[in-house]
Amino acid sequence: MTFWTENNFEPKRAFRFKLNLGFGSEEQSIPYFYLKSATKPVLDISSKEHMVGGRVFNFPGIPKWADVNLEFVDDVNNTVIRKLVDVIQASNYKDMLDGAGSDFTSNALKFISKSKLTNSLTNAFSSQASTNGTQVSFSVEQLNAEGEVVEAWDLYNPIITKLEQDSLDYSKEDLSIYKLTVKYDWAKFRNLAQAGA
């Protein structure tokens, strides 16, 4: 039987998604409706060529996870940008974002730490926060029509590598967008549709 004759067939839709940043409780995190777009994890496997007898054979190389790019809109209360700045400040980078990076204080001699940056993105309040106390993750989650998570990608040991803001322009009426680039060590797929979640 073809799918278009079945009323229980439901395709995934690109606009049904949310991000579990795991900053803390629901009140502490960025509400899902501020997220404009998100890329899913991409596994890129390089290949190496080997030529034998006039023919080329390909062999898989080292796999690498591509960056995840997030776009947010914000309100006049700075709900999003304030939280993102807090995350970076929590990684030992407080003085620079406070405009005090030139002061030779004890804080000015601190550098960004992977563990602190990773832990500032997701902490013990998150359900996906830790594995044996060493790995932390946040999730890109896709939803069905009922708002239930059916697919999730957990990003382990994430770090922010770029925080970008839209330019200002008197000739535009667009919403201001904040772009975030996140690197991570690896991703894990969770099939929640089969788990009945």
Helix share bin: 10-25%
- Global morphology: globular
Distance between the termini: 27 Å
Taken as a percent bin, the fraction of beta residues is: 35-45%
For the biggest sheet, the summary is: 4 strands, antiparallel
| Structural class by sheet pairing and helices | alpha+beta
The chain-level mean pLDDT equals: 79
How do the strands and helices of this protein lay out in sequence?
Blueprint lengths: L16 E4 L14 E4 L4 E10 L2 E11 L2 E6 L5 H19 L16 H8 L15 E7 L5 E8 L2 E7 L11 E7 L2 E6 H4 L2
Antiparallel strand pairs: 1-6, 2-5, 3-4, 5-9, 6-7, 7-10, 8-9
Helix pairs in contact: 1-2
Describe this structure in words.
Helix 1 (79-97) runs antiparallel to helix 2. 16% of the residues lie in helices and 36% in strands. A hairpin with a 5-residue loop joins strand 6 and strand 7. It contains three helices and ten strands. The protein has a four-stranded antiparallel β-sheet with strand order 1-6-7-10. The chain has a four-stranded antiparallel β-sheet with strand order 2-5-9-8. Strands 3-4 form a two-stranded antiparallel sheet. The longest helix has 19 residues, at 79-97. It has 197 residues and is of the alpha+beta class. The chain has helices at residues 79-97, 114-121, 192-195; strands at residues 17-20, 35-38, 43-52, 55-65, 68-73, 137-143, 149-156, 159-165, 177-183, 186-191.
